[in-house]
Structure formats: structure tokens, C-alpha cells
Design brief:
By secondary structure, this protein is of the alpha/beta class. The protein has 3 domains: 214 residues, HUPs (Rossmann fold); 79 residues, Tyrosyl-Transfer RNA Synthetase, CATH 1.10.240; 72 residues, Structural Genomics Hypothetical 15.5 Kd Protein In mrcA-pckA Intergenic Region, Chain A. The protein is built from 19 helices and 13 strands. Strands 1-6-5-2-3-4 form a 6-stranded mixed sheet, with helices on both faces. A 5-stranded mixed sheet has the order 7-13-12-9-10. Helix 10 packs across helix 11 and helix 12 packs across helix 16. The longest helix has 17 residues. The chain starts with a helix and ends with a strand.
Amino acid sequence: MDKIDELLTRGVDTIYPSKKELEKVLRSGKKIRLYLGVDPTGEDLHIGHAVPLNKLKQFQQLGHEVILLIGDFTGLIGDPTGKSETRKVQTTKQVEANAKHYKEQAGRIIQFDSDNPIELKYNSQWLGKLSFLDFLNIATHLTVPQLLKRDMFKKRIDDNQDIFLHEFIYPAMVGYDSVVLKVDLEVGGTDQTFNMLVGRDLQKKLDNKEKFVLTVPLLADANGRKIGKTEGNVIGITDKPEDLYGKIMSLPDSAIIPCFELITNLTMTEVEKIKNELKTDSANPMEYKKRLARQIVEQYNNADVAAAAQRFFEAKYQEGNKEDTAEVAAVSEPLAVSALICKLDKSRSSSESKRLIKQGGVKINGKKSDDISFIYEPKVDDIIEVGKHKVYRVKK
């Protein structure tokens, strides 16, 4: 592959109106203006975000003008994509807190201080200044049947569920971002196709300008769910290295090749080699997954940190030295085991803790504790395992 062919092929699902037309523009030597929009509905950018961020990186390296747009205004509402229920509206304070470290997190992949720096923008800069009349003028370019084509809205109607007006106008809001930014291309996940095509339509009607849309695949976890903030299965770009390594190791074997292709810096020649090796009878998927985990930790940190994360994982899960790597936890009074898990792992909700217990995902001194009504009596040096990747040693 040459660089343009790889740009338009690797980690790409669909290009609108066509790959051929975008390739023609790029091979002409023209430098285009493009962006990726991210709503701050959670505090962490995750490896799902890494897929479109890697695509931005490729465009940046080829000298194109790239924008990372933080949807601090649209994030107040939240994208209804794929949701059977209405999202809770966030406050400005919540959105600001969520987006606080986005630049630092994205900076593990893209460059904000290079010779061709990525530009960071916030859509509150224009959406927050629109008058009601301004928005009505935008809305005249969209039709109700056009918006009702959205699969999620169709399903809600079929299920006799409400669609609130703020959800209905969300595509118009994010679509207007394209108009203001005057871009030639928008990059986003396949779940954002509808929104991005609304923006393409608005640019055509308001500015008589064609916008290309490039969609990238979504990464999924072991249960086939999209890896993301609202799904509660985040693998954060800036997670602690040992946590990041362990979470990658928990992905299904079927995710090995997609992850190598979509979120690593390995060449496609190397990826194809790994793909072919995995097809042989002698291949051990565990070893390739370890290579994947180490590669990703190294990309977001450095080689020494990645090596240490691998040693930590091997000592903890392959050599059986759980006691040596356990995190010290203070437990001074008897607790229901579900409350204990919430106390130890504050990222888990009460319902998640109970579900994990019922599934046999909690062990106390090596024995499964699957009774949610069990009362744990703390003893010094008890070893408590929570899920596959968290081990605690009790201290009073």
C-alpha cells in the first residue's frame, strides 16, 4: 500500500459519497480540512476513540488540516444514537469536568504541538451563541421524514416509546458543526453515520459545499458490546499501564487482529503476518494477545512501562503470585460482600457488584463468593479477587 491507499483502506468502513472521489482529491495534492467530534459524556477517552484518532493522525502526518472538536454544547444533551431510553441531560459543570483531560488523553495519539498541529475547538463557541431564530433558519433545511429515517427513532416509535424534541434536533446541532468549521471531510464511528450525513446535507444546502464522510469500525468487547463510556466497559487510553494491559488481555481472541489493525502502529504487512500465524495449529492466541497489550501500553506510554506492565500481569495471573501484587485495602468492619466490592473497586456500581458476585467473579482467599447476602468478616491479609484483574490484601 502507498500512504493514501492505506489512509483510505486501513480501519475504514465506508466513505461517502465514495472512496474513489476522495482518493481523487487527495492524489491531486490538495490539502483538505477535516475533523472528528467527541461529546464529553464521560471522563475518559478510550480505545474505541483511538480508532478515529488514529485516522486523524494519518491525515495529520500527510500534512492535512485536522481539528479535534469537543462537543461541550451537544454533550449537554448527549447523542441518542442506539439508546432505547432518553439520556439524562448533563449540566455545564459536568461536561466541563468530563472534558478537562481530553486534550492530554488524545495527545497520547495525535500531536497538538508538531509542525502541523491538530487544532482543538469546542462547539459551545458557536452553538451557545445561536438565537432561536438562527436555529429555526437551520431547521428549515431539514425535514421530519429525513430525521425519522434514523433507525433508533424508528425503533422507539415501533416500541411506542417517546422521542423528546431535544433528541430529535440533536443531529441538526452536530450537523451545523460541519457548516461552521467549513470542512471537506468528517471522520467518525459507524454509529455516527446518520449525524455525519445530516452535516453533509446541511453543508450542501447552506454553503453549496460537498463534505466527504469517512466512517471507522467500532471496537467491541467479549460480549459484542461497543467499547464506550455509556456501555460501562471503558478501556481508557490513560488507564494505569497495568490496568490497560490487563483489560486488553480480557478481550476475546477474535479482537486480536481488529485491534492490531485499528489501534496499533504496526504496519499492515506485520498485521497480515500475525493474522496468518494465528491460523496455524501451533499458534497460541494468548501470546499474540500479550504482544497486542504490550504494543498498546507502549504506544500510550513507553517501552519500559509496557515491559513492567507485562511483568505485573504475568506475576499476577500466570505465576500465581497474587499476594505479591495485591493492592492494600483497609476494611475495618463487617460488610455485605456486595458493599465490600463497591468499597474496594469504586468504579463498580452496586448492581454491577451483585452481578459479578452471582457470576462467580469474586473470590476470598481463592474461594468463590457467589452469595450476595454473605457478610464478610475482615481478617488481616485476606486476599480478595474482584473480576479478572483486581486483587486486594485486607489491612485494618
